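Ticket #498: bound-state structure for nicotinamide-adenine-dinucleotide.
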Amino acid sequence: MRLIDHLIAGGTGGTPARKGDIFDPNNGGVQAQVALGDAAVLERAVAAAQAAQPAWAATNPQRRARVMFEFKRLVEAHMDELALMLSAEHGKVIADSKGDIQRGLEVIEFCCGIPHVLKGEYTHGAGPGIDVYSMRQPIGIGAGITPFNFPAMIPLWMGGVATAVGNAFILKPSERDPSVPNRLAELFLEAGMPEGIFQVVHGDKEMVDAILDHPAIGAVSFVGSSDIAHYVYNRGVAAGKRVQAMGGAKNHGIVMPDADLDQVVNDLAGAAFGSAGERCMALPVVVPVGEGTAERLKEKLIPAIHALKVGISTDAEAHYGPVVTQAHKEKIEGWIATCEAEGGEIVVDGRGYTLQGHENGFFVGPTLIDHVTPAMSSYHNEIFGPVLQIVRAADFETALALPSQHQYGNGVAIFTRNGHAAREFAARVNVGMVGINVPIPVPVAYHTFGGWKRSAFGDTNQHGMEGVKFWTKVKTITQRWPDGSQDGGNAFVIPTMG
Ligand code: NAD
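RESOLUTION: The complex was predicted; output attached.
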């Protein structure tokens, strides 16, 4: 059976002691295996990173940027191949896979401008004959640990910025869909990045723990579910590392009575069900304000949901494909059952969905549940499937309180024609990323991505200037060049503002 192996200094990992199965979400069954590495495999990657990183850091930033330009060209040239590979393991439809890759490339475009953002600050004459300047230097070796749901975008969020600023980067992608990360690493090599600068090690908890404990790795960026994010954050920080750990989400869409409901329904079809709801910026909770809004919204949502087409990931007509594993399908269906038992009204039931010709595929039909309340565990927890819950709110303040008080605080959206309500909502809501009539408010690459509360541990976001800050250390230099001609010219004077 095909084996997805580590990519260490351009080579592979040898015969793995342990392997994991990679499923075929469209048909069920196992399509390939992935090597599950350990501390010894990591040690080889770290040694290669240590050998390569000083010269890469000393390479001028413009040359590093040229590698990014070439990488972008190569990924674009291989877009169809990468999208097919991604869909085959993840299950998302080809258009979504291309979106995943494209969003990652936008971070690479930001990295093409890295010489500009690394310029530092300078003060001439901060004291008598004294200048102060700062420089951003790479951490040295950084690692990224990524989830299954964006196997191109999230590795590039981290690995693009980390390498552009001069680090060596070791990626530990999800063991569910590891092929695209390997292919991206190969394309970095082809683009001219030296061996040892962007490497991939595969594995599960054993490899993650090895990364967290390795003394030569200075920074770890993690994206995944919240309990594991919290664990990674604590263990990494205890080992003296800089850690950012993004977690789960339960994003709300507030629908004000004056909203354009046709637009809202159209947006919800994509935001709640696109990619089978396996997006950390999906919109799985809709909060209509007022009973009238709730009834009108529900009436429009039902036919729109029935019109959604579920298909295999290469079906160009399909709205979304299978979920990633049988275990995940069962988990989603379990949450629907829990919500029903808790008193939720199942309006459209996606359980037990089968696709003709693909009866063993991991498909879940679109599901709509009304009369969900904050007391329900199915509201409190992330379902991460094609399930939309309606939580009715009597007024604006109640609607504002729902996402604000939820344990997760990744994204939120408000749909309204009222600028004052939108402005008030954006300022007061206790959530990291806000959309105003934008259902999935993922910031562009030169801004920054990150949630609040249990959606992110650590205080630095992904990409944009926050990413540059995370992957670099600031050094501040105070200099003087006494020429010996002044009185006391050689006596040191601490500069003051006086
Ligand atoms: P996951 O937490 O299961 O896995 C993430 C990574 O952690 C993987 O590389 C995995 O190998 C590793 N891992 C798994 N179990 C571990 C353990 N016990 N100890 C140490 N490491 C472990 O997440 P997933 O199912 O791959 O991805 C979906 C989750 O990611 C969802 O919760 C989603 O909301 C979240 N997510 C968050 C963001 C964000 O930016 N906040 C973005 C994308 C996905």
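RESOLUTION NOTES: DSSP finds 16 helices and 21 strands in the chain.
TICKET STATUS: resolved
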